[in-house]
Specification:
The structure is a homodimer of 189-residue chains. The first copy, chain A, is α/β, with parallel strands linked by helices. Chain A contains 5 helices and 11 strands; from the N terminus they run αβββαβαββββαβαββ. Chain A has helices spanning 2-11, 32-46, 62-72, 130-142, 160-166, and strands spanning 13-15, 19-21, 29-30, 53-57, 76-79, 90-97, 102-109, 118-126, 145-155, 171-179, 186-187. Chain A has a 6-stranded mixed β-sheet with strand order 5-4-8-9-10-11, sandwiched between helices. A two-stranded antiparallel ribbon of chain A has the order 1-2. Chain A is globular and about 45 Å long. The termini of chain A are close together. The interface between A and B is large, with 39 and 39 residues. β5 (76-79) of chain A pairs antiparallel with β3 of chain B.
Protein backbone atom coordinates (compact mmCIF):
# COMPACT_ATOMS: atom_id res chain seq x y z
CA UNK A 1 0.00 0.00 0.00
CA UNK A 2 1.90 2.95 -1.40
CA UNK A 3 0.32 5.74 0.68
CA UNK A 4 1.08 3.87 3.89
CA UNK A 5 4.66 3.13 2.85
CA UNK A 6 5.31 6.79 2.05
CA UNK A 7 3.90 7.79 5.42
CA UNK A 8 6.08 5.27 7.26
CA UNK A 9 9.16 6.55 5.45
CA UNK A 10 8.33 10.21 6.08
CA UNK A 11 6.91 10.06 9.62
CA UNK A 12 8.10 6.75 11.15
CA UNK A 13 10.98 6.82 13.61
CA UNK A 14 13.41 4.09 14.63
CA UNK A 15 14.50 3.23 18.13
CA UNK A 16 17.21 0.79 19.23
CA UNK A 17 16.09 -2.83 19.47
CA UNK A 18 14.05 -2.99 16.29
CA UNK A 19 11.34 -0.59 17.42
CA UNK A 20 9.51 1.42 14.75
CA UNK A 21 7.51 4.30 16.18
CA UNK A 22 4.53 5.42 14.09
CA UNK A 23 2.63 7.22 16.79
CA UNK A 24 2.14 10.43 14.85
CA UNK A 25 -0.37 8.76 12.49
CA UNK A 26 -1.15 5.19 13.59
CA UNK A 27 -1.14 4.26 17.26
CA UNK A 28 -1.27 7.34 19.46
CA UNK A 29 -2.30 10.14 17.12
CA UNK A 30 -4.30 8.55 14.31
CA UNK A 31 -5.03 9.79 10.79
CA UNK A 32 -8.65 8.69 10.17
CA UNK A 33 -8.39 9.00 6.38
CA UNK A 34 -5.33 6.81 6.27
CA UNK A 35 -7.13 4.41 8.60
CA UNK A 36 -10.08 4.27 6.19
CA UNK A 37 -7.75 3.59 3.26
CA UNK A 38 -6.11 0.83 5.30
CA UNK A 39 -9.52 -0.71 5.97
CA UNK A 40 -10.35 -0.54 2.24
CA UNK A 41 -7.21 -2.60 1.51
CA UNK A 42 -8.23 -5.18 4.10
CA UNK A 43 -11.76 -5.22 2.71
CA UNK A 44 -10.41 -5.99 -0.78
CA UNK A 45 -8.28 -8.78 0.65
CA UNK A 46 -10.79 -10.42 2.95
CA UNK A 47 -14.18 -9.14 1.81
CA UNK A 48 -15.02 -12.03 -0.50
CA UNK A 49 -14.31 -14.70 2.08
CA UNK A 50 -16.86 -16.26 4.40
CA UNK A 51 -15.81 -14.04 7.30
CA UNK A 52 -18.59 -13.12 9.73
CA UNK A 53 -16.63 -11.23 12.39
CA UNK A 54 -13.60 -8.98 12.78
CA UNK A 55 -11.33 -9.71 15.72
CA UNK A 56 -8.66 -7.44 17.19
CA UNK A 57 -6.79 -6.66 20.41
CA UNK A 58 -7.04 -3.42 22.33
CA UNK A 59 -5.94 -0.73 21.87
CA UNK A 60 -4.18 0.00 18.57
CA UNK A 61 -6.08 -2.62 16.58
CA UNK A 62 -9.48 -1.10 17.32
CA UNK A 63 -9.38 1.79 14.84
CA UNK A 64 -8.56 -0.24 11.69
CA UNK A 65 -10.88 -3.05 12.87
CA UNK A 66 -13.93 -0.82 13.36
CA UNK A 67 -13.33 0.83 9.97
CA UNK A 68 -13.14 -2.62 8.33
CA UNK A 69 -16.21 -3.80 10.23
CA UNK A 70 -18.07 -0.74 8.98
CA UNK A 71 -17.03 -1.32 5.35
CA UNK A 72 -17.96 -5.01 5.45
CA UNK A 73 -20.97 -4.57 7.78
CA UNK A 74 -19.60 -7.07 10.30
CA UNK A 75 -19.41 -7.02 14.09
CA UNK A 76 -16.02 -6.28 15.63
CA UNK A 77 -14.79 -7.92 18.82
CA UNK A 78 -11.70 -6.68 20.63
CA UNK A 79 -9.79 -8.87 23.06
CA UNK A 80 -9.23 -7.12 26.37
CA UNK A 81 -5.93 -6.98 28.19
CA UNK A 82 -7.57 -6.79 31.62
CA UNK A 83 -10.35 -9.11 32.70
CA UNK A 84 -13.48 -7.00 33.33
CA UNK A 85 -15.09 -7.61 36.72
CA UNK A 86 -18.37 -8.49 35.03
CA UNK A 87 -17.07 -10.91 32.42
CA UNK A 88 -18.35 -14.46 32.70
CA UNK A 89 -17.36 -17.46 30.58
CA UNK A 90 -14.05 -15.99 29.58
CA UNK A 91 -11.52 -17.34 27.08
CA UNK A 92 -7.99 -16.38 28.05
CA UNK A 93 -4.47 -16.58 26.60
CA UNK A 94 -1.04 -15.32 27.62
CA UNK A 95 0.90 -13.02 25.30
CA UNK A 96 4.53 -11.96 25.64
CA UNK A 97 5.19 -8.39 24.53
CA UNK A 98 8.68 -7.99 23.12
CA UNK A 99 8.52 -4.19 23.17
CA UNK A 100 7.42 -4.10 26.79
CA UNK A 101 9.39 -7.22 27.86
CA UNK A 102 6.55 -8.63 29.89
CA UNK A 103 3.63 -11.02 29.57
CA UNK A 104 -0.01 -10.08 29.73
CA UNK A 105 -3.29 -11.91 29.36
CA UNK A 106 -5.82 -11.27 26.63
CA UNK A 107 -9.41 -12.37 27.06
CA UNK A 108 -12.66 -12.56 25.13
CA UNK A 109 -16.07 -13.44 26.47
CA UNK A 110 -17.15 -16.84 25.16
CA UNK A 111 -20.43 -15.14 24.19
CA UNK A 112 -18.68 -13.26 21.40
CA UNK A 113 -16.39 -15.92 19.97
CA UNK A 114 -17.94 -19.29 19.19
CA UNK A 115 -17.59 -22.34 16.97
CA UNK A 116 -19.83 -20.74 14.32
CA UNK A 117 -17.41 -17.84 13.80
CA UNK A 118 -15.13 -17.33 10.81
CA UNK A 119 -12.95 -14.42 11.78
CA UNK A 120 -10.43 -12.03 10.31
CA UNK A 121 -7.87 -10.88 12.85
CA UNK A 122 -6.65 -7.27 12.41
CA UNK A 123 -3.76 -5.64 14.23
CA UNK A 124 -1.44 -2.68 13.78
CA UNK A 125 1.87 -4.58 13.99
CA UNK A 126 3.08 -8.09 13.23
CA UNK A 127 6.49 -8.60 14.83
CA UNK A 128 7.24 -11.94 16.51
CA UNK A 129 3.61 -12.97 16.15
CA UNK A 130 2.98 -13.24 19.87
CA UNK A 131 -0.35 -11.41 19.87
CA UNK A 132 -1.38 -13.57 16.90
CA UNK A 133 -0.48 -16.72 18.86
CA UNK A 134 -2.74 -15.47 21.66
CA UNK A 135 -5.60 -14.89 19.21
CA UNK A 136 -5.04 -18.32 17.64
CA UNK A 137 -5.29 -19.84 21.11
CA UNK A 138 -8.55 -17.97 21.86
CA UNK A 139 -10.01 -19.12 18.53
CA UNK A 140 -8.96 -22.73 19.20
CA UNK A 141 -10.59 -22.57 22.63
CA UNK A 142 -13.79 -21.25 21.03
CA UNK A 143 -13.67 -23.58 18.02
CA UNK A 144 -13.71 -20.52 15.75
CA UNK A 145 -12.00 -20.50 12.36
CA UNK A 146 -9.40 -17.90 11.37
CA UNK A 147 -10.07 -16.98 7.74
CA UNK A 148 -7.36 -14.34 7.51
CA UNK A 149 -4.96 -12.12 9.40
CA UNK A 150 -4.36 -8.52 8.35
CA UNK A 151 -1.59 -6.31 9.67
CA UNK A 152 -0.85 -2.69 8.91
CA UNK A 153 2.92 -3.10 9.36
CA UNK A 154 4.86 -6.36 9.40
CA UNK A 155 8.44 -6.41 10.68
CA UNK A 156 9.77 -9.24 8.52
CA UNK A 157 13.07 -9.44 10.42
CA UNK A 158 11.26 -10.49 13.58
CA UNK A 159 9.86 -13.59 11.91
CA UNK A 160 6.22 -13.64 12.98
CA UNK A 161 4.91 -13.43 9.42
CA UNK A 162 7.09 -16.29 8.20
CA UNK A 163 5.96 -18.45 11.11
CA UNK A 164 2.25 -17.78 10.53
CA UNK A 165 2.46 -18.28 6.74
CA UNK A 166 4.31 -21.60 7.23
CA UNK A 167 1.46 -22.69 9.46
CA UNK A 168 -0.91 -21.97 6.61
CA UNK A 169 -2.52 -18.77 7.80
CA UNK A 170 -3.68 -16.27 5.17
CA UNK A 171 -1.51 -13.36 6.31
CA UNK A 172 -1.78 -10.00 4.54
CA UNK A 173 0.43 -7.09 5.57
CA UNK A 174 0.04 -3.65 4.02
CA UNK A 175 3.66 -2.62 4.54
CA UNK A 176 6.58 -4.93 5.25
CA UNK A 177 9.70 -3.64 6.99
CA UNK A 178 12.73 -5.64 5.88
CA UNK A 179 15.15 -4.03 8.28
CA UNK A 180 15.65 -1.19 10.73
CA UNK A 181 19.43 -1.63 10.84
CA UNK A 182 21.36 1.56 11.68
CA UNK A 183 17.92 3.11 12.14
CA UNK A 184 17.26 3.18 8.42
CA UNK A 185 13.72 2.07 7.54
CA UNK A 186 13.98 -0.41 4.67
CA UNK A 187 10.61 -1.44 3.23
CA UNK A 188 9.93 -4.39 0.93
CA UNK A 189 8.92 -3.27 -2.61
CA UNK B 1 -30.55 9.22 20.19
CA UNK B 2 -33.45 6.84 19.78
CA UNK B 3 -31.67 3.93 18.10
CA UNK B 4 -29.06 3.86 20.86
CA UNK B 5 -31.67 4.05 23.61
CA UNK B 6 -33.60 1.12 22.14
CA UNK B 7 -30.40 -0.89 21.92
CA UNK B 8 -29.50 -0.16 25.55
CA UNK B 9 -32.97 -1.23 26.68
CA UNK B 10 -32.95 -4.42 24.62
CA UNK B 11 -29.32 -5.54 25.00
CA UNK B 12 -27.91 -3.73 28.05
CA UNK B 13 -27.56 -5.63 31.30
CA UNK B 14 -27.41 -4.42 34.88
CA UNK B 15 -25.01 -5.56 37.55
CA UNK B 16 -25.04 -4.68 41.25
CA UNK B 17 -23.30 -1.43 42.12
CA UNK B 18 -24.63 0.71 39.29
CA UNK B 19 -22.86 -1.17 36.52
CA UNK B 20 -24.47 -1.20 33.06
CA UNK B 21 -22.96 -3.76 30.74
CA UNK B 22 -23.26 -3.00 27.03
CA UNK B 23 -20.53 -5.28 25.79
CA UNK B 24 -22.64 -6.99 23.14
CA UNK B 25 -22.69 -3.85 20.97
CA UNK B 26 -20.48 -1.12 22.42
CA UNK B 27 -17.33 -2.00 24.34
CA UNK B 28 -16.31 -5.60 23.73
CA UNK B 29 -18.30 -6.65 20.69
CA UNK B 30 -19.03 -3.50 18.69
CA UNK B 31 -21.72 -2.75 16.11
CA UNK B 32 -19.94 -0.61 13.51
CA UNK B 33 -23.15 0.79 12.03
CA UNK B 34 -24.37 1.91 15.42
CA UNK B 35 -20.90 3.36 16.03
CA UNK B 36 -21.15 5.33 12.77
CA UNK B 37 -24.60 6.67 13.75
CA UNK B 38 -23.17 7.66 17.13
CA UNK B 39 -20.35 9.54 15.40
CA UNK B 40 -22.91 11.31 13.16
CA UNK B 41 -24.69 12.60 16.28
CA UNK B 42 -21.41 13.87 17.71
CA UNK B 43 -20.54 15.45 14.34
CA UNK B 44 -23.86 17.34 14.36
CA UNK B 45 -23.20 18.54 17.90
CA UNK B 46 -19.56 19.51 17.61
CA UNK B 47 -18.90 19.80 13.87
CA UNK B 48 -19.54 23.55 13.61
CA UNK B 49 -17.18 24.46 16.41
CA UNK B 50 -13.53 25.38 16.05
CA UNK B 51 -12.39 21.90 17.05
CA UNK B 52 -9.17 20.72 15.41
CA UNK B 53 -8.62 17.41 17.19
CA UNK B 54 -10.57 14.52 18.72
CA UNK B 55 -9.31 13.22 22.05
CA UNK B 56 -10.22 9.93 23.71
CA UNK B 57 -8.90 7.31 26.14
CA UNK B 58 -8.06 3.74 25.24
CA UNK B 59 -9.72 1.38 24.71
CA UNK B 60 -13.51 1.81 24.41
CA UNK B 61 -13.37 5.43 23.29
CA UNK B 62 -11.29 4.68 20.22
CA UNK B 63 -14.05 3.33 17.96
CA UNK B 64 -16.47 6.29 18.26
CA UNK B 65 -13.54 8.73 18.19
CA UNK B 66 -12.02 7.39 14.96
CA UNK B 67 -15.47 7.38 13.31
CA UNK B 68 -15.97 11.00 14.36
CA UNK B 69 -12.46 11.92 13.24
CA UNK B 70 -13.23 10.39 9.87
CA UNK B 71 -16.53 12.26 9.49
CA UNK B 72 -14.98 15.61 10.47
CA UNK B 73 -11.59 14.94 8.84
CA UNK B 74 -9.72 15.58 12.09
CA UNK B 75 -6.83 13.76 13.75
CA UNK B 76 -7.67 11.55 16.72
CA UNK B 77 -5.40 11.17 19.74
CA UNK B 78 -6.00 8.50 22.34
CA UNK B 79 -4.56 8.77 25.85
CA UNK B 80 -2.70 5.62 26.84
CA UNK B 81 -3.13 3.82 30.12
CA UNK B 82 0.45 2.54 30.14
CA UNK B 83 3.45 4.72 29.42
CA UNK B 84 5.12 3.45 26.23
CA UNK B 85 8.86 2.82 26.60
CA UNK B 86 9.57 5.18 23.71
CA UNK B 87 7.40 8.11 24.80
CA UNK B 88 9.26 11.34 25.52
CA UNK B 89 7.80 14.60 26.83
CA UNK B 90 4.78 12.96 28.36
CA UNK B 91 1.75 14.60 29.97
CA UNK B 92 0.32 12.44 32.73
CA UNK B 93 -2.72 12.36 35.03
CA UNK B 94 -4.15 9.94 37.57
CA UNK B 95 -7.65 8.52 37.12
CA UNK B 96 -9.67 6.53 39.65
CA UNK B 97 -11.83 3.83 38.11
CA UNK B 98 -14.97 3.21 40.11
CA UNK B 99 -15.81 -0.01 38.27
CA UNK B 100 -12.35 -1.44 38.82
CA UNK B 101 -11.80 0.21 42.22
CA UNK B 102 -8.24 1.25 41.45
CA UNK B 103 -6.29 4.18 40.10
CA UNK B 104 -4.39 4.24 36.85
CA UNK B 105 -2.40 6.82 34.95
CA UNK B 106 -3.32 8.16 31.53
CA UNK B 107 -0.72 9.83 29.37
CA UNK B 108 -0.41 11.70 26.10
CA UNK B 109 2.77 12.71 24.34
CA UNK B 110 3.21 16.48 24.50
CA UNK B 111 3.83 16.33 20.74
CA UNK B 112 0.16 15.54 20.13
CA UNK B 113 -1.56 17.87 22.60
CA UNK B 114 -0.44 21.49 22.58
CA UNK B 115 -1.62 25.01 23.35
CA UNK B 116 -2.88 25.44 19.77
CA UNK B 117 -5.38 22.57 20.15
CA UNK B 118 -9.14 22.93 20.51
CA UNK B 119 -10.33 19.44 21.31
CA UNK B 120 -13.51 17.44 21.62
CA UNK B 121 -13.20 14.63 24.15
CA UNK B 122 -15.15 11.46 23.29
CA UNK B 123 -15.73 8.46 25.56
CA UNK B 124 -18.14 5.56 25.87
CA UNK B 125 -19.32 6.26 29.45
CA UNK B 126 -19.68 9.27 31.70
CA UNK B 127 -20.16 8.10 35.28
CA UNK B 128 -18.40 9.99 38.08
CA UNK B 129 -16.41 11.95 35.52
CA UNK B 130 -13.03 10.65 36.67
CA UNK B 131 -11.67 9.94 33.18
CA UNK B 132 -12.89 13.41 32.15
CA UNK B 133 -11.03 14.95 35.10
CA UNK B 134 -7.89 13.21 33.87
CA UNK B 135 -8.39 14.56 30.36
CA UNK B 136 -9.07 18.07 31.72
CA UNK B 137 -5.78 17.83 33.62
CA UNK B 138 -3.88 16.74 30.49
CA UNK B 139 -5.41 19.62 28.52
CA UNK B 140 -4.53 22.11 31.28
CA UNK B 141 -0.94 20.84 31.30
CA UNK B 142 -0.78 21.26 27.51
CA UNK B 143 -2.63 24.59 27.46
CA UNK B 144 -5.21 23.02 25.11
CA UNK B 145 -8.85 24.12 25.08
CA UNK B 146 -11.73 21.69 25.55
CA UNK B 147 -14.47 22.73 23.12
CA UNK B 148 -16.83 19.89 23.95
CA UNK B 149 -17.23 16.51 25.63
CA UNK B 150 -19.30 13.77 24.02
CA UNK B 151 -20.38 10.58 25.74
CA UNK B 152 -22.32 7.65 24.38
CA UNK B 153 -23.93 6.83 27.72
CA UNK B 154 -24.15 9.08 30.78
CA UNK B 155 -25.10 7.62 34.14
CA UNK B 156 -26.82 10.67 35.62
CA UNK B 157 -27.10 9.12 39.09
CA UNK B 158 -23.31 9.05 39.42
CA UNK B 159 -23.06 12.82 39.05
CA UNK B 160 -20.18 13.30 36.61
CA UNK B 161 -22.34 15.07 34.04
CA UNK B 162 -23.77 17.52 36.58
CA UNK B 163 -20.27 18.32 37.86
CA UNK B 164 -18.86 18.97 34.38
CA UNK B 165 -21.84 21.07 33.24
CA UNK B 166 -21.63 23.19 36.42
CA UNK B 167 -17.99 23.85 35.58
CA UNK B 168 -19.13 25.17 32.20
CA UNK B 169 -18.13 22.30 29.94
CA UNK B 170 -20.22 21.68 26.83
CA UNK B 171 -21.27 18.10 27.67
CA UNK B 172 -23.39 16.12 25.21
CA UNK B 173 -24.55 12.59 26.04
CA UNK B 174 -26.45 10.47 23.53
CA UNK B 175 -28.30 8.42 26.15
CA UNK B 176 -28.76 9.31 29.80
CA UNK B 177 -29.43 6.62 32.39
CA UNK B 178 -31.48 8.05 35.25
CA UNK B 179 -31.32 4.95 37.40
CA UNK B 180 -30.39 1.28 37.51
CA UNK B 181 -32.28 0.64 40.73
CA UNK B 182 -33.52 -2.94 41.14
CA UNK B 183 -31.62 -3.63 37.92
CA UNK B 184 -34.21 -1.79 35.83
CA UNK B 185 -32.66 0.45 33.19
CA UNK B 186 -34.46 3.81 33.38
CA UNK B 187 -33.48 6.21 30.59
CA UNK B 188 -34.18 9.95 30.43
CA UNK B 189 -36.67 10.87 27.69
Amino acid sequence: MEKLKQRILSDGRCFPGGILKVDSFLNHQMDPNLMKSIAVEFAKQFGESSVNKILTVEASGIAPAIMLGFLLDLPVVFAKKKKPSTMEGMLQAEVFSFTKQRSYNICISSEYLTSTDKVVFIDDFLAYGNASRGIISLCEQAGAEIVGMGFIIEKAFQGGGEMLRKEGYNVHSLAIVESLEDCIIKLRD
